Amino acid sequence: MENKARLQQMREAQGYSRAAFARATGIPLRTLESWEGRVRLPRDVYQLLKAARALGCHIEDIIEETE
Fold first, then answer.
1. 3-state DSSP of the chain
2. Using CB atoms within 10 A of its CB, is residue 60 exposed (0-12), middle (13-18) or buried (19+)?
3. Do residues 9 and 1 lie in contact, with contact meaning Cβ atoms separated by under 8 Å?
4. Residue 58's CB: how many other CB atoms inside 10 A?
């Protein structure tokens, strides 16, 4: 299995490019890049909710557990 962030896997499975997903959700492209590159963790619940709605899932499906 590839070592991609869960959000990236889900986004790609639905055919969204990063730019298209950013436009669809209103989440800044740089924020998505940081999340998917695991530079920053998603912490803004409102942004997570927008992402979950666009992907048709729950916030919990996007969040990755940290060790």
1. CCCCCHHHHHHHHCCCCHHHHHHHHCCCHHHHHHHHCCCCCCCCHHHHHHHHHHHCCCHHHHCCCCC
2. exposed
3. no
4. 12
% of the chain with per-residue pLDDT over 90: 79
Here the tokens at position 13 are 């499975």
pTM of the model: 0.86
Query: What's the angle, vertex CA 28, arms to CA 23 and CA 55, rounded to 5?
Result: 55
Dist. CA 28–CA 61, nearest whole Å = 20
Q: How far apart are CA 46 and CA 3, in angstroms?
A: 26
Q: Which amino acid is at 35?
A: W
Structure tokens at 14: 């639905």
Distance, CA of 35 to CA of 29 (rounded, Å): 10
